[in-house]
Amino acid sequence: MQYTSTRGAATRVDFRTVVLSGLAEDGGLYVPVSLPQFSANEIANWSWLPFDELAWRVISPFVGDSIDEASLRSLVSDSYSRFRHRAIAPLQQIGHNEWVLQLFHGPTRASKDFAAQLQMRLVQHFLGENGDRAMLVGASNGDTAVAAIEALDACPGARLLALYPRTGTPGDRMAILQAADSGRVCALAVDGSFDDCQSLVSRLFRQWPLPDVVPISFNSTNWVGVLAQIVFYFHAALQLGGGLRPVGFSVPAASFAEIYAGFIAQKMGLPINQIIVSTNRNDALHQFIHSNRYNTGSSSHTLSPAMDFSLFSNLERFVWELYERNGPATRALMEHFEYCGELSIGNRQWLQARMLFDSYAVGDAQTREEIATLFRETGCAVDPHTATGAFAGRLHRRNIGAPMVTLGQIAPEKSAALLAELGAWHGEVPASAALGAPARVLGRDDLQGLGEILAQLQAGR
Question: What pTM does this model have?
């Protein structure tokens, strides 16, 4: 398996290079030159497989000969060793042909554990004894960084730098980030939004200041962040129809990687008949899918904070696919977007996307009502992000005869206070995290200061 850049660089690289990367050399994102294809019968024959074996079947074609079969099997299986449910990602029924795929049984109780646990083991495999020369860098508004820090034990030599917005990060996640500072980890508050954090990280990768240190993204700009999530779709479809029955998915827009992963799963042969993108009032993705207008702008705080942003890096991979893997066309579109903050694609490409995708923006009042209604009618407690997906899935499903699966990305207990207020939580409500002032707050454009912090972290100071 070879990989190329979304922006048309001629150089092709192997899976090892992709794992140990931030951005491609030309500033694009790495993508596979071709996708593995599975027949309906081949997929159907996987219906009896446990999750880790299914994951190996889906992941191994993307790895190629970069890792031998025995090592990859062991590595993939070990990635799920700390999950608390024997099914890894169980399904819970919430209505007629309506389901929630529970992706929150990992060590940090969020779907980000799938990519983080897999990525750290892949990084460790490829770096081996030189792991101390790797620096994992990324932006997060909570769960992604917490999952990466938790998984760092699997890569003992590497160091990690996480940027998070000073306001808008949930208190319990911020407390973990503030407590994580050590000789190997630096969690740094930024005086700006999550989008500002993302932009700063992208600039850092393009102007990397430490030539002897391998820069690796722990965000889903790294292909592993997408690869780990393709498995979700195969797992759910096999559980609900043996891989032969069409299935729809509703995806809360906490990351475009999960949305794009569903698109890739369909191209690989999985019978997905619809993907609904649910947003909150920060509706940049809804506007893109519904009206072919994508704009970044200021984000407002909502009940679903993991969705409070408008800059989605994996949208570039999706555009590349829609433009039939045309690197120069993708480069022109993305450079225009980076310059003016606006993006529209060709009408033919947009109509192609609409064949699979629908979207809906869910307000806080609708989210509250969905949480309360689901608990009252099913006894199922869901967090606000899952509630947006369940609401949008019920409202916009195209085929009531096909199962509709909402990706449940965050454990409900992480929103216990809100759920208790709505009468949808009868368990213990954790006390609010005690937060101190961040030791240092980085300006949203302070690339020089970020480089100095990187050097100090690499030196163990």
Answer: 0.95
Radius of gyration in angstroms for the set of CA atoms belonging to the chain, rounded to a whole number: 21
Q: What's CA 403's distance to the chain center, in Å?
A: 23
CB-count burial class (<10 Å; 0-12, 13-18, 19+) for 343: buried
- Judged on CB neighbours under 10 Å (0-12, 13-18, 19+), 37 is exposed
Residue 90 sits at φ, ψ, to 5 deg, of: -75, 155
Q: Which two tokens stand for residue 142?
A: 């909570």
The domains of the chain, with CATH numbers, are 73-108+224-421 (3.40.50.1100), 110-219+431-461 (3.40.50.1100)
Q: Can you list the alpha helix ranges (DSSP code H) found in 155-292? A: 171-179, 194-206, 223-241, 256-267, 284-291
Q: State the amino acid at position 321 in one-letter form.
A: E
Calculate the dihedral angle through the C-alpha atoms of 386, 391, 396, 401, rounding to the nearest 10 degrees: 80
Phi, psi of 83 (to 5 degrees): -80, 145
Sorted by sequence, the CB contacts under 8 Å of residue 144 that are 6+ apart come out as: 112, 116, 138, 218, 219, 255
Tens of pLDDT, residues 303-340: 999 999 998 999 999 999 999 999 999 999 999 999 99
| Angle, CA 108 vertex, CA 103 and CA 110 arms, to 5° | 30
The residues facing 360 across adjacent strands are 278
CA distance 83 to 74: 16
Q: List pLDDT tens digits, range 222-271.
A: 999 999 999 999 999 999 988 889 999 999 998 899 999 999 999 999 99
Cβ contacts of 108 within 8 Å, gap of 6 or more: 143, 146, 147, 150
Specify whether the CB–CB gap between 49 and 351 falls below 8 A.
Answer: no
